[in-house]
Structures are given as structure tokens and as C-alpha cells.
Amino acid sequence: MNNIVLLLMFGVFIGLTTVFFGFGGGFVVVPVLYGLNAGHPDAMHIAVATSTAVMVVNASIATFTSRSTGLIRRDYLMPLAVFIAGGAAIGVLVATRTPDSLVHALFVAYLLITIIDAVARRGFLERSGDPRPLGKAASTVGGLGIGAVAAFLGVGGSVMTVPLLRRRQVSMAAATAMANPLSIPVALVGTVMYSIPREPLDSLGVVGYVDVLACGCLLAVSLPTIALGRKLVRHVPDRIHAIAYVALLVVALVAMLTV
User: Within 13 Å, how many C-alpha atoms sit on residue 14's CB side?
Assistant: First the structure.
């Protein structure tokens, strides 16, 4: 019962991060579920898999509610989304064959690298020009890499698409809005592949590696929060929005290092 209450509480936070940062829940779901399943031999795999299932719904709803804002541009999404889906399949295949402890270590390492890159390299915290289109390499090879890393870590497209779009001088409001539709292919591929039956796990209500009960609790609260939060995101100053993105990554890093 205590776990259910905690999941409901974090559901609000997940809804807000979906709207404001395009996470779909990933950077919040993974540390939370990893902590709740601490000691389980498949704790990280369950956290990653359940994160992708939560993202299917959250990212889809956030995309639908943002369709009339003008923030989502097709020229940035395609063909990037197609290659992200292909990369996601690779990421899941590798993750399911990787020891739980190594997935955890790589999750921490990626958070650290992303934080350092955002702070140390120009172009993320502040915009310095007009938006530029994505090149072919970024949309194809980059898309495969984004999908593979995102599905492996269970963190959705935002893990790499927001920094990528920021380097193209896209506003934080637009970058995070487009991170949600770019998370959908990762989430769909990840959920299907992580749900494939394997040797029974100890946890009740787990399908493959997906914790269905935890997923339901998180979605029950995050979905209404998305509906409310979408009205506020465009009023956040761009620099504050970028700083908050990095700050949340720091919180996620600390959580993964202390649970």
C-alpha cells in the first residue's frame, strides 16, 4: 500500500515533466521504480521496461494536446522518428542481454555526460540565433543512436532530442514539445519487446519486465496533470526552462546514486 501511495504522488511529478521537459516520465519513472524494487535482481530492467510503457500513454497524450500550439514541426520529426524506432529495437535487444548492474551504471553515466555537456558546451542554456534544420546525418544515423540509447535506458526521445534540437537553436518550449512525439516510437518498440514473456519474475503483476500495477498507478495521476500543465509551459522563459531541465537531470542522477 505504501508503494501505491508513493507511485500516485510521483505520478503528478511525471505528468509535469512530460509537459515541461518531454520526458514522458522516463527520468522520473526509472529512479522511482528502481528505488521501490531495490534488492530485486531485475530492478533496473523492470524500471526501464515500465518506463517505456508509461511513456506510450503520456507521450501520446502530450502530443495530442500540443497539436494546436504550433510548437510541433513535421520537418524536425521526419524522418528522424523512423530511424529512432529502428534504433529502439536495437537498444532493447542489447538491454535484455545486459546485466542489471551494468544498465544501472550506464544510466548514471549518461545522466552525468548529458549534464556536463549541457552546462559546458554553448547552445543549450541560451539560444544565439534562429532555428536551423536537422541535417541528413542527424536525422538518420543520429536517429538510430537516439533510439538505441533511449530504449536501452528507458528514458524516451527527450534524453537526446532536446539537446539535439537546442543545438539547432530551437526554443525549449518547442524542443520539449517535439520530444514527446519522438518518444512514442521508442516507447512503443520498447514496451512490446520488454513485455515478451520470459522466465517468471518474483514480482506479482509483471508482464515480461513491465510492472503493470505500477504503470497503472503512475498513469492514473500523470494524465490529468498533463492536461493541466500544458496551459503553463509556453509562459516559462526559455533560459529558466533550460536550467530547470538540467536541474531535473541532476536530481535524477543523485537519486540513482543514492538508492
Answer: 37
